[in-house]
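Input for the complex:
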Amino acid sequence: MNRPCACGIALFCGLLLVSCGDIGAPNRTNLYEFRTIVAVGDTLSFHWPTEMMPVTFWVEDSLNLRAHTDSAIAVWQRELLYNEFHGEIIADSASADVIVRAETPPGTAVPAMVDACQAATDLPIDRATHVLTLPVRVYVEPRFDPSLPTTQACFATVMIHELGHVLGIMNHSSNPLDIMFSNPTVATPSERDRNTVQVMYHWPMNVTITR
Amino acid sequence: MRRPFFLALCLASGLPVAAAAQVGYHAGVGATWSTDIVRDVILVPITTRPGIAPTLFLGADLPIARDYRMGLELSAGTASLTTRTPSQPNSDLDQGRITTLSALLDLSGQVTRGLRWRAGLGVLHYAGPGDAGIFAQGGTMRALFGGGLDYQLTAGRRWNPVISARYDYHRFSTKELRTQGFGLEQGVQRISVSVGVAGGSR
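Predicted:
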């Protein structure tokens, strides 16, 4: 065998050996509870399944909510590394999976409050049957003048928070540095928020979706 | 048309004009298979891999010594990108399409009549959908090591049919993957086969 041929084979074998190295994936252990505990040994875990993508949103044409919803969808899409979630705003409210309205949250919902606004999400899952009946509803309400920059900034924050619930995070984080803290003080998802939503989208779901 | 163009190229690059007459060309179309570009674990293993990519190859080379030639080979391919969870059937996630462009500076030599080996170093550029996913912060340029074989079916004509096989290796990562905490790079191997023509001086 001549020298170039031997060198080529040696190089090929060497490359095969070094090619085994993996990419050093993050461990994603720093996260918070995203499921609802119904009873001892019974939890609800939900995320939008692949076959339902894109999840459709109808947004009331008020308070600049469309822009805030669009932005919040993009924020969560980027947190999910493998396109597990894809949302889009549509014009027909009757066929939407999620309805976003500028109105007072119903008494049953626990609102997320920032100084200038409040919002809540109604994820209607029957705890006995584990059935989610669409549409999911998001309520956003200003507490100050909605045209003020602080109120608009508040809408941006609470929309990301509420879309976290829409995606399937059914609890609040206990850490004020997370966007899913009950009264969010940060403008973007944290590493813990990202870890939580990434794990959630690969966690076995036990909720059935109906309309 | 081709000769004046190449003469101009040789003059511009300082290459002796006499060498222009010794230039060999090759072009081909084929398909490229790749191993996973990301192997992740979120509860269970998750893999992201390009599909079979239709690929275009273009190359030129010059003799540098008896039996040896030095050349440049360019390739361009496009493929779908899919994330799979092997333990969960029907879990494929479409990541859109990626485009790869490579340039490989290589050395080649004759093995037997009609059969040549080729090995070299170069760069490989990945471009992908930029709104989300592993290319959310843009594409990436990677160092590339590669080699292969060319088998020329006939000789003596102006253009002769060639069957080629290529292997290359690079380490993959993107800015988005590093931002998301991926600390290393994924070893990626690609294999291509193509059919084409070779011409000029061989």
